[in-house]
Design brief:
By secondary structure, this protein is mainly beta. It is built from five helices and 32 strands. It has helices at 143-153, 300-307, 371-377, 459-462, 504-509; strands spanning 2-11, 14-21, 30-33, 37-44, 52-55, 81-87, 93-99, 109-115, 129-138, 162-165, 182-185, 190-197, 204-208, 213-218, 221-228, 231-233, 238-244, 251-258, 271-278, 324-335, 353-358, 361-363, 409-411, 414-417, 422-429, 438-442, 447-454, 473-474, 476-479, 483-490, 495-501, 512-517. A six-stranded mixed β-sheet has the order 10-9-12-17-14-15, with no helix packed on it. It has a six-stranded mixed β-sheet with strand order 21-20-25-30-27-28. A five-stranded mixed β-sheet has the order 11-19-18-13-16. The radius of gyration is 22 Å and the shape is globular.
């Protein structure tokens, strides 16, 4: 059972009431095996509406358990409860769970570890230890107030005050060093670090001083192992790495800080640390831990080299003979100040309100019923199915964009997919306002990332770059700043599935859309009726 409740949490010298699960921060780690069925009862004792999303779980025919507010369910109201029921099928590695309602996931999150079935083993030597490393982002203010203020003013929200490792900021922040996370290790041991970027609004670099990291998994799929000195995780991504204790037996910092691809945009430039402590290192007057060197904040070259190192361990069945070839622009925009708004509500650039969109549609969630219920019960007027499969206006997406193209339309538009469709989506970043690396997450699916690049996607030139042999399988793709990525999947899971930027500030502004995947033939290709305890709207 998960109880959502307010809990006093002291960080950076100040105590705040924060929304937590079971009073724990980060929330409890769920440890399961491939093939397990889960029932998690969520009881809401907080003052906010809440839902829980099981990030990366395929949810085959269990769309009612996916969790995004007003997409697959109405929120669990204060005093209410809901039981999420779903099965882990064919996934092994690290996922995570988090609130999917307003900005509650700033503190409502935890690891979801999926081990192999009983009697099966990892495709790499069994590590001596396993440690979840959950990277987070902390505001010295109520995150709900931060987003509400931004929604009121139309400006960008205040940046965070700290990053955290397992909810602790670490030695480089005030009032924090006595609680710094410590990871003990014996010389010669191998530790499987399950690194999760649970930060609300920031891609992060991660490194451990003097130690190499061997990447073996990501987003609960195995990866052909490769060795690196630094990771970059887009918001929502997970990466499993092996670290061997083969250095002098002292103390080493593991550290994370921002990868900031948007130029001239304020960001939190602090560094969170934890300590990798060899058990034989001297206690007491031990020297300060050794600090890793992290890339420069805007080091896109390191990010590109890292992301292009990902491969599936062997040849995979990439969907070919595509019958849905889609092209989605993703990026920011500006809404002109509505005539009835005071100037204080239009504090974006030049008296506007900041916005974001996919194919120029800024996504609006319904407010009185969820999309999945409206679809299943045939309720009209909640959404339309005219989300454009290509940009309504073609332009130089990553060039100097005319100001006339900055204003998106708002709508609750879905894109319909027939069951079994073989889908390709080109995700094309734009240079509107601030080009940025966008972590795009698709609910209910994993997808193959078959290529990425910079500038405008050009099918004549770029199709030759497609990796149709061993591309990585992910649930979240970091689309390069001022660039593009191409993903493929088979629409084999009926329901309504959100696709959105995992920087919560951007989803707040509308950088999202949803696929409506129709039922196929028979019970095994259809969405069942909703559970009886689905929250009332």
């Amino acid at each position: 059972m998960k109880q959502i409740q307010a809990t006093p949490v002291k960080r950076l010298c100040n105590t705040h009431n924060r929304i937590t699960v079971n009073g724990m921060f980060p929330g409890p780690t769920l440890e399961v095996r491939n093939g397990d069925s889960l029932e998690v009862k969520v009881v809401n004792k907080a003052r906010y509406n809440v839902t829980i999303h099981w990030h990366g779980v395929r949810q085959m025919r269990t769309g009612w358990a996916d969790g995004p507010e007003f997409v697959t369910q109405c929120p669990i109201r204060p005093g209410g409860s809901y039981t999420y029921r779903f099965t882990i099928q064919g996934q092994e590695g690290t996922l995570w769970w988090h609130a999917h309602s307003s900005w509650l996931r700033a503190t409502v999150y935890g690891a979801l570890i999926i081990r192999p079935r009983l009697g099966e083993s990892y495709p790499f030597p069994k590590p001596n230890l396993e440690t979840p490393i959950v990277l987070g982002q902390w505001w010295d203010a109520n995150p709900i107030d931060v987003v509400r203020e931004a929604t009121r003013t139309g400006a960008a929200p205040n940046v965070s005050d700290a990053y955290t490792i397992n909810a602790q900021p670490g030695d480089l922040y005030k009032c924090s060093s006595k609680d710094t996370t410590i990871i003990p290790i014996d010389a010669g041991e191998t530790n499987l670090l399950r690194v999760i970027n649970a930060a609300l609004n920031q891609p992060l670099f991660f490194a451990v001083a003097n130690h190499k990291l061997t990447v073996v998994g990501a987003d609960a799929t195995y990866i052909k192992p490769f060795t690196t000195s630094v990771l970059m995780l887009g918001a929502g991504q997970t990466t499993d790495v092996l670290i061997k204790a083969d250095q002098r037996p002292v103390r080493y910092y593991m550290a994370a800080r921002a990868y900031q691809s948007a130029q001239n945009v304020p960001f939190d430039n602090t560094t969170t640390t934890a300590i990798l402590e060899y058990k034989s290192s001297k206690k007491g007057n031990a020297p300060k831990p050794i600090m890793p060197s992290l890339p420069a904040y805007n080091d896109t070259n390191t990010v590109t080299a890292f992301s292009r190192s990902f491969r599936s361990p062997r040849k995979v069945q990439v969907p070919t003979e595509i019958n849905e070839s889609l092209f989605f622009t993703i990026g920011l925009g500006l809404n002109n100040c509505p005539p009835n708004f005071r100037r204080s509500r239009c504090q974006g650039p030049n008296g506007t309100r900041l916005a974001a969109s996919m194919n120029n549609v800024s996504f609006m969630l319904p407010r009185s019923i969820s999309l999945l219920q409206a679809h299943q019960q045939g309720i009209p007027g909640v959404f339309t199915t005219d989300f454009p499969g290509t940009p309504p206006v073609k332009f130089d997406y990553t060039g100097n964009v005319s100001r006339t193209l900055f204003q998106p339309i708002t709508g609750t538009k879905l894109y319909k997919l027939k069951f079994g469709s073989r889908v390709q989506v080109v995700l094309q970043g734009t240079s509107i306002i601030a080009p940025e690396n966008h972590p795009i997450h698709l609910h209910g699916y994993d997808f193959y990332i078959i290529a990425d690049g910079f500038g405008n996607f050009n099918p004549k030139r770029d199709t030759s770059k497609f990796n149709l042999v061993d591309p990585p399988l992910r649930n979240t793709v970091a689309v390069p700043a001022n660039g593009w990525a191409v993903i493929r999947f088979v629409a084999d899971n009926p329901g309504v599935w959100l696709m959105h930027c995992h920087l919560d500030v951007h989803i707040t502004w509308g950088l999202a859309m949803a696929f409506l995947v129709e039922n196929g033939f028979g019970e095994l290709q259809s969405l069942p009726a909703p559970p009886s305890d689905l929250p009332l709207c």
